[in-house]
């Protein structure tokens, strides 16, 4: 049998934030088996944690949507280390821990800090996405995502993150963003023409005045019609707004982003921006999570 957990990430209360599947003991599972389990659990992403013989890393992480493996997932990582801490598999006896984890694209740092509730706040390094201006085809983009063309913020550019096949779309008013009904087929069709698989909508108007951004994020081509609260998208949004001169100055800037309100899955992401000589050198994202369910798969999936 294979044990799993369902965990609500980027929140401190159950049935909010973004739910991830976690298989915290994935040693011996093949890629096909992990994909089948992720499909069975049916969450936007499931994180699989394995041991490793590499002396320089502590654990190995892999992430799967119901249809594809992805390079990195913030909320599922926060979920996974919340589970690992609860299982006693992370040594944070001094209320903190720092780990190095292997992924299919390299290693990442993960940090745990005990909160007053006793649960960890999990932060992870996601590096610095390389952004470039996207073609200014605003009418086609608006139609693809389901916005009125006038809802796109004329003061900010469309931006491309080709490393994650992401298009960043600025939206002027929070009301327009919240009432958007996403056009999944339109995004898939537009993506086939342009190679975008992720659409991150960024609004500087927020519900909480302390938030730096309100997001909605869609990846229907990856089996995710709408992601409730997206850690990596917040990191990219911070880089995007910094590029436009809209983040506070300083060598270490800690921000809070908000997401999930439109689909009643409110959550918050902590974003830490680190700079040297005025340039961003690293971005860390994270938050807290709540374990809502544990179970066991009664059958081991065969390969696909």
Gap between N and C termini? 18 Å
Percentage of helical residues? 10-25%
Mean pLDDT: 96
- Strand tally: 18
Q: What is the alpha-carbon Rg in Å?
A: 19 Å
Overall CATH class of the largest domain? Alpha Beta
Following the backbone from N to C, one meets helices and strands in this order, namely EEHEEEHEEEEHEEHHEEEHEEEE
Q: Give the CATH topology of the largest domain.
A: Diaminopimelate Epimerase, Chain A, domain 1
Question: What would CATH call the architecture of the largest domain?
Answer: Roll
Number of helices: 6
Quaternary status: single chain
Tertiary shape:
globular
Kindly estimate the percentage of residues that lie in beta strands according to DSSP: 35-45%
Structural class category: alpha+beta
Largest β-sheet summary: 18 strands, mixed
What count of structural domains? 2
Query: What is the CATH homologous superfamily assignment of the largest domain?
Result: Diaminopimelate Epimerase, Chain A, domain 1
- Low-pLDDT stretches are none
């Amino acid at each position: 049998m294979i044990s799993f957990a369902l965990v609500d990430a980027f929140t401190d209360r159950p049935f909010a934030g973004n739910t991830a599947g976690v298989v915290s003991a994935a040693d011996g599972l093949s890629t096909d088996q992990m994909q089948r389990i992720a499909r069975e659990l049916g969450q936007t992403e499931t994180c699989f944690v394995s041991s490793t013989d590499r002396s320089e890393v502590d654990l190995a992480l892999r992430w799967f949507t119901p249809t594809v493996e992805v390079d990195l997932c913030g909320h599922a990582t926060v979920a996974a280390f919340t589970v690992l801490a609860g299982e006693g598999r992370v040594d944070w006896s001094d209320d903190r821990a720092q780990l190095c984890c292997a992924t299919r694209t390299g290693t990442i740092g993960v940090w745990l800090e005990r909160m007053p509730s006793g649960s960890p706040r999990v932060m992870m390094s996601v590096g610095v996405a390389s952004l470039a201006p996207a073609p200014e085809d605003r009418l086609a983009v608006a139609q693809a995502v389901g916005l009125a063309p006038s809802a796109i913020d004329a003061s900010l550019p469309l931006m491309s993150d080709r490393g994650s096949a992401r298009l960043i779309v600025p939206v002027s008013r929070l009301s327009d963003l919240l009432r958007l009904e996403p056009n999944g087929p339109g995004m898939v069709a537009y993506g086939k023409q342009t190679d975008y698989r992720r659409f991150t909508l960024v609004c500087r108007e927020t519900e909480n005045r302390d938030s730096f951004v309100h997001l909605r994020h869609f990846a229907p081509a990856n089996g995710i019609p709408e992601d409730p609260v997206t850690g990596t998208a917040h990191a990219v949004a911070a880089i995007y707004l910094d590029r436009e001169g809209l983040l506070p100055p300083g060598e270490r800037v800690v921000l809070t982003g908000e997401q999930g309100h439109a689909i009643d899955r409110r959550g918050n992401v902590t974003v830490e921006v680190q700079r040297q000589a005025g340039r961003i050198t690293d971005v860390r994202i994270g938050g807290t999570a709540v374990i809502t369910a544990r179970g066991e798969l009664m059958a081991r999936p065969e390969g696909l």
